[in-house]
Amino acid sequence: QVNLVESGGGLVQAGGSLRLSCAASGSIFSANTMTWSRQVPGKQRELVATTSSTGSVKYADSVKGRFTISTDNAEKTVYLQMDSLGPEDTAVYYCYMRILRSDYWGQGTQVTVSS
Question: Is the pLDDT of residue 78 over 80?
Answer without folding.
Answer: yes
